[in-house]
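Open question from group meeting: does this chain pack into something compact, or does most of it stay loose? Before anyone orders reagents, we agreed to write out a predicted structure and look at it together. Recording both the input and the output here so the notebook holds the full record.
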Amino acid sequence: LLQLQLRVPGERRYRPPREMILDTTQGCTVTSLRNAVAQTLQIPAQQLELAKRFPDTSKWVCIWETTSKGGKGKRRQNRENLRQSPFFLHDGDTIGVKPCFADAQDLSVDSSPDFSTAEDDEQNLRLQTEKKQKDATARPRRAEVALSISVADYR
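Structure tokens returned:
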């Protein structure tokens, strides 16, 4: 179960989230996610940009298809798994969706890879100020002291 948030074109905000059930029986790949989102939102899969939101850091990580080269010999090709690094996709995650229309000359369509909102910027600023305050109130380290070891002469 994933939360889909469709970005409002030309603005830095999203429409209310929609729930989507992702069938992972055939694998949890970028292609399967893209096709499921396209089917849910009635938008062609080639015209979608996807990103996963990490709520603790207010960061969005773009979900892209990797071009994996085939291995030597008869080894299977590695298929990307969204449950593993760097996406760690699991139930309840928020997926941001931006429709990108290549033929559209409309300036209201956002073509930048940035998925963040004004709320994300505010939360990042708040986290940075909290970190600075924490670092400022931290106890300073003691100065290093020279260490000398005297060894008796054993002759």
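Observations to bring back to the group:
The mean pLDDT is 81.
The longest strand covers residues 48-54.
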